[in-house]
Amino acid sequence: MKAVGIIVEYNPFHNGHLYHLEETKKKTSADCVIAVMSGNFLQRGEPALVSKWARTNMALSAGVDLVVELPYVFAVQSAEMFASGAVALLDALHCAEICFGSESGEIDPFIEAVHTLQKRQQEYDMHIQQALKTGISYPQAITRAWKQLQIADIDLTKPNNILGFSYVKAIKEQNSSIIPRTVQRIASGYHDETFSHPFIASATSLRKTLSGSIEQLEHISPYIPSYTKHALEQYYSTYGTFHEWEHYFPLLKYRIMTMEENELQRMANVDEGLEYRFKQAIVEAETFSQFIHSIKTKRYTWTRLQRTCAHILTNFTKEQMAATKKPAYIRLLGMSENGRRYLQIVKKKLSLPLITNAARLHSDYIYEQEKKAVAAYTAIFPEPIRTNATKEEYATPPIYWRACK
Amino acid sequence: MKAVGIIVEYNPFHNGHLYHLEETKKKTSADCVIAVMSGNFLQRGEPALVSKWARTNMALSAGVDLVVELPYVFAVQSAEMFASGAVALLDALHCAEICFGSESGEIDPFIEAVHTLQKRQQEYDMHIQQALKTGISYPQAITRAWKQLQIADIDLTKPNNILGFSYVKAIKEQNSSIIPRTVQRIASGYHDETFSHPFIASATSLRKTLSGSIEQLEHISPYIPSYTKHALEQYYSTYGTFHEWEHYFPLLKYRIMTMEENELQRMANVDEGLEYRFKQAIVEAETFSQFIHSIKTKRYTWTRLQRTCAHILTNFTKEQMAATKKPAYIRLLGMSENGRRYLQIVKKKLSLPLITNAARLHSDYIYEQEKKAVAAYTAIFPEPIRTNATKEEYATPPIYWRACK
Q1: Would the pLDDT of A112 be above 80?
Q2: Interface with chain B: mutation pick from A257, A289, A370, A377, highest number of B CBs within 10 Å
């Protein structure tokens, strides 16, 4: 059996994701699709709209065969670390190919860019250092260095292109035999916040429309499959909320206000005196949005600050971030019958332990951070939902999806 | 002018407190009564029912002339440290006497006990060590050592007697010229939870009856002066709540669940593997009461565990506790006209700076903990009440109470 890997957040799963999934199957003729999916917190530093279990259900409904968790320590990171963790998991699962969405749908510019960069690393680093000195953000510095090298024909101001580039780079760096592929994204751009297409909209615009409540669900239904709608309805009726940063702001504020500056400084991403800005701004901030607006600068992008806040909320330290090298386990969240067959074939040759029972992970340092993320994620629920939701994390076996025929 | 010092929590101010205040005035013929009062968290590790400002108003209404704050680092401590901080503040304010409530109303047994203890310190310490080895709590060990020494005629199982003894001991240890006095407590015992007297009831029973809401206020009105009732009503209508541990449990749970064991171990009072018990019990606990019940042992009393939880909630570390030696400032919360006159007389000879504007304290390490306590205390309010209440802490000048004539 041939497996293709995809790297996803499904926050929530929508028609654009379905298109990517279908195109991936066509393009690669794989027998099995493996999705590496972020858990409670996502790459841009946001809490996931609904739990990993609800999103795993969406993925399996859509035809994904295996869903494995990208641990927090890789998931809530810049593109490079994010890609490195995801690629390592897919490599450990013996994926033959990876297929990501890009603006152009052409893989060659990505491969060429990675090759060139490796040859001209020093020059590239120098350009980045120079760019950073002008006070711009790290992503902007990368884009600028990129232009100055005039390497390849990829628009690296597009987040999806940066991720694609990072996947190809990680494959190369890890000497993986995975073949990178890309399919062209359909319609709507990553950050689009308007509905300009009849059935395709970005996850960002969908979340924004929902804005934490079920009331606008009808408005987004043209853009999501029926099983996503059903999963969202079910989640809301059980947990009473969709998760968004504003719900966590009371906890974040409590945390920052009871930390001293030197403690704040030990948190991941809190650099260059950010601790003072945080401590000062938090006193007056009544909402998360107000808080981020008041500390945002040219240097610190919204995403970067949001990620820093996720680290503070989940107590993720610089020390732990520095210790993050590569995945230590493959945590299975869900599988189809087909995915199960695939696992039976590759099971003996997996290079990382396959975990179906999280209780066995309790002493793992990567999972330690996962537990903290779960604790923070469920902290907004009233009791007894909170206690139950926390225990679900440890007790839920992988979802086994049997198609009705 | 002659000043007498009293050490209070007024949580809330009730008829028993008024009796103590009146008896103190009669007994000492002082011209000025100075109360040292705990702030947001109290000696038994509980959040104060209402803010320090509301309780200062009660004290001034009752006829106290000066209210100064006992900082968190002394207030949420065992009797010895609590007394040491309070006595040092009253000494700095040039009180001639201290007058506390006791079961017998006789001062000699207290003085005799302190004298004897100083002479037989080694023997006493040995008895305590032996008692602790049997697995009982520290307060119980003290009581047992006490009995074995057969020193004096004080029942040290009574919390108020332990406090009284600690005041006399602190006066002696600090070589203070303060004369200790005591008045007999009226009716109801400290821990009484029933209403067995027509107009006297313990603060504990009053809080229990209120249990966080205004609805039972009428039921407690026989036991409190009208100004207490008024202050409680006003507080509730402004802030929408009376404070109690259960309201803070969601925050405490979030905090403990996102801390690793070694971090928990750095918190004040977390000794002897308590961190493991805490981490284990917190997962299943849905209420504060459940949580404490599940970790309580013969060794760890409810009070001790509650105090430990206050330290975790406010992020008070072992290191900070060890650094706590003596007060660094006198923070004025309120004064009467008479109190103001007294301050004008003693102002120049105060041995500690008198602080009327908390903003001036921002770099003080004792006040650093006060800020954390305020942040935790106000964290249960919705916005914008939370932000306003936090700012009040820094912006509120001492309450100046002018009696209408």
Answers
A1: yes
A2: A257
